Amino acid sequence: MQPYELSLAAAADAIRARRLSPVELVDSVLDRIEKVEPHLGAYVTVAAEQARRAASEAEHEAAQGRYRGPLHGIPMGLKDLIDVSGMATTASSRVRAGHRATADSTVAARLSAAGAILLGKTHTHEFAFGLTTPQTRNAWDHGRVAGGSSGGSAVAVASGAATFALGTDTGGSIRVPAALNGVVGLKPTYGLVPRHGVTSLSWSLDHVGPLTRTVEDAALVLTALAGHDPRDPASLSVPAADYRPVAGTDLTGLRIGLPRTYYFDTVHPQVETAVRHAIGQLEALGAQLVEVDIPMTRYIQATQWGLMVPEAGAYHEGSLRTVPELYQEDVRILLEASELMSAGDYVRAQRSRTLMRAEWARMLEEVDVIAAPSVPMPAVGADEETVTWPDGTVEGVSDAYVRLSAPANITGVPALTVPVGHDSAGLPIGMQLLGRPLGEPTLLRVGHAYEQTQPARALATAA
């Protein structure tokens, strides 16, 4: 096994035991980037020499016994909405031409302090306003979408071009590309991970979180990221915690909510089969399955778009009026649509969210975790704009991909996607676990227990 193939946890163990140096690991991942990047387009920019210098410094620190923790010497990618001092934050948009960040974002500073090494910035759907990331190709099939908007981060991790990466999630933008590329993606509780220095799409729905190879890896990254920052008005005042899941697979006493409504209503049959099989595995580990009805489902799409579009429009108001031609057409149309929405529309969406949060809180008193598909279908072709379901219903690709992930953004509950197999074409399928606010330890415990019953996952075959 080459160093670039190692999970974060395995690489961390090897570095700590002095069986692997950060220099060897970073060189291996940079070599992998050089090989796969021309085919995948995961990165906006790669800072190879900067990464090599940081790896050398990390190796020197390790030799001196100054070990910063499990992220020491681990190479990562950051979605190009996340500020790093002196580097461009392009948001994959011509609107940001010539931009340079003057300070680190909170998450970049925390990862650097933990010893992680920046490889470069990964592509996003322009300003995170989309679910496909068209400039990036799926790690398993280059003719299919990567998912978005954190498509570059997911593809980098899936292909071995980063040991872990950060993304953002406003309507599924961590979980969708993670599921479509066969990696783990975690959207934390709203406010658990600070967003200071991260370009906003929709302030009341935005989250920052990790994309990794395993659930344990996601827990290691979350441990470094979580914690209060007063510069983010939504940041929660919670004590520092170690999110690493306990060893073992016994889920006795845990109640898994199995949705009777919404999450399985319109999904690809192979997705449903794989996810239900994985839920059966959780039951075999001792969990109790409890059927639940998802509340207020008819309002989910209207609430998601009713919040996201006006907030995005407000953020982009100035540049949309001065340089509209610099936006990609799909994003510009969505931003222009924000000007057609009234204050009343936005207030009604806010009221709907308040009611939905209350209903979800009541539902989550009855179960510990809800298990469901992450996305309704595997990655579609890059040129497909709609999907036609067996009953003849035609749905836009972006609408389909946001449909099962939006509830966690509206309500702010944590959500984790875990790979649970592949379809007949070899494309990944993901299972989504949703929990109570600040219920990350339970989600990570369940996801980790499931992983322990499965064979080790290989890197993407098309990379």
UniProtKB/TrEMBL annotation:
Residues 24-444 form the Amidase domain. InterPro entries: Amidase, Amidase_CS, Amidase_dom, AS_sf. This is Amidase. One of its GO terms (molecular function) is catalytic activity. SUPFAM superfamilies: Amidase signature (AS) enzymes (SSF75304). The lineage of its organism: Bacteria, Bacillati, Actinomycetota, Actinomycetes, Kitasatosporales. Pfam families: Amidase.
